[in-house]
Write a structure and sequence with these properties.
Layout lengths: L31 H10 L1 H8 L12 H13 L5 H7 L3 H7 L7 H9 L3 H22 L3
Protein name: Transposase DDE domain group 1
Organism: Candidatus Kentrum sp. DK
């Protein structure tokens, strides 16, 4: 029987319509194409499938969730886990990424402390695989 590893912190992202005026404006709008790109490349699913990390059945956040949130936070310019949480406090960005909840910085740190050196090695291998996929996708040859 396959264990249910579906994330409780993410749902399918909704479509985003860009307007220059109106409600729901955000200063983090430049991250929306990055969110779409990472989803298209399959980063959250690849982390779930490629890097094994067991958490309790009642755990809301998985390693793939916090890695995804942190990667996007670093792209946004965050220099600490507290600033990653500040980036994700934007409701429009959370909606575009399909995030229901955002963990606090101590939860992010606690989950990252659970990661073993073997899992870090697997993440590096996954990074190289995703990069080669991107270069094959971008390059016409």
């Amino acid at each position: 029987m396959k264990k249910n590893t579906r994330s409780k912190a993410r749902v399918r992202a909704r479509n985003v319509h860009i307007q220059s005026t109106g409600r729901g404006l955000t200063s983090q709008a430049g991250l929306i194409p990055v969110v779409k790109f990472l989803k298209k490349m399959g980063l959250p699913d690849a982390l779930d499938n490629f890097v094994p990390h067991r958490r309790g059945n009642n755990a809301v956040y998985q390693l793939s969730d916090v890695t995804y949130l942190t990667v996007l936070g670093l792209i946004a310019g965050a220099s600490s886990l507290l600033k990653v949480v500040a980036v994700w406090s934007d409701g429009v960005l959370r909606g575009a990424a399909g995030c229901i909840r955002i963990p606090d910085d101590t939860t992010l740190g606690r989950i990252f402390k659970e990661v073993s050196p073997g899992q870090i090695s697997l993440m590096e291998t996954l990074q190289h695989r995703l990069r080669s996929t991107v270069w094959c996708y971008v390059s016409p040859s």
